[in-house]
């Protein structure tokens, strides 16, 4: 449904170079891994160029996609920190698997997705919004109960660890 706006794509490279920039190491001026972004004003300094013609543009790309209410499950909006370490299929599989594991809150699913990005060593900004459509799977009551029990156990263990010194190393009294 979408594609990344990466500096090394021909159309993006042409705009970057026309604005006085370069693409080195697959990045804008060897630094920024995306070629369209909000912010990143360092790359938007050419006063004689329109905003969409700057080295980095905030101009969105619109795709009109017919939805299938019987099969469409989720829409995931995420920063490149997620997409740098996960494919579209990785994300889809992850969200469905976490739902099957008992997570029934879209915010919690998004938090878990960001945690997965950290586990996979993403080195970029990460944020995510997950929209559930009517065809999205729902966890069984048993899966929800099991997830909540695992979560309660983790919270209990963390509280006990904090009461016992938070896991800090003990002083060596030798």
Query: What can be said about the biggest beta sheet?
Result: 2 strands, antiparallel
Our count of helices gives 5
* N- to C-terminal distance: 63 Å
Strand order of the largest sheet: 1-2
Number of strands: 4
Keywords:
174 residues; mainly alpha; 2 domains; two-stranded antiparallel sheet; disordered C terminus
Describe this structure in words.
The chain is globular, with a radius of gyration of 22 Å. The relative contact order is 0.11. The protein is built from five helices and four strands, in the order αβββαααβα. The chain is mainly alpha-helical. About 35% of the residues lie in helices and about 10% in strands. β1 and β2 (about 25-30) form a beta hairpin. A two-stranded antiparallel sheet has the order 1-2. Strands 3-4 form a two-stranded antiparallel ribbon.
Short description:
The protein is mainly alpha-helical.
Describe the SSE topology.
Elements lengths: L9 H9 L4 E2 L2 E2 L45 E5 L1 H4 L4 H13 L5 H14 L8 E5 L8 H23 L11
Antiparallel strand pairs: 1-2, 3-4
Helix pairs in contact: 3-4
């Amino acid at each position: 449904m979408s594609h990344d706006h990466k500096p090394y794509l021909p159309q993006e490279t042409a705009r970057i170079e026309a604005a006085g920039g370069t693409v080195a190491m697959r990045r804008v001026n060897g630094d920024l891994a995306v070629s369209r972004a909000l912010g990143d004003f360092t790359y938007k300094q050419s006063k004689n160029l329109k905003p969409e013609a700057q080295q980095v543009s905030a101009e969105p790309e619109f795709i009109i996609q017919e939805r299938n209410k019987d099969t469409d499950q989720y829409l995931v909006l995420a920063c490149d920190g997620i997409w740098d370490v996960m494919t579209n299929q990785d994300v889809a599989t992850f969200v469905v698997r976490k739902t099957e594991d008992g997570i029934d809150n879209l915010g919690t699913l998004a938090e878990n997705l960001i945690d997965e990005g950290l586990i996979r060593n993403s080195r970029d900004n990460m944020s995510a919004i997950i929209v559930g459509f009517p065809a999205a799977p729902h966890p069984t009551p048993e899966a929800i109960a099991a997830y909540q029990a695992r979560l309660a156990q983790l919270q209990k263990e963390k509280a006990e660890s904090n009461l016992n010194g938070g896991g800090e190393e003990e002083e060596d009294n030798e």
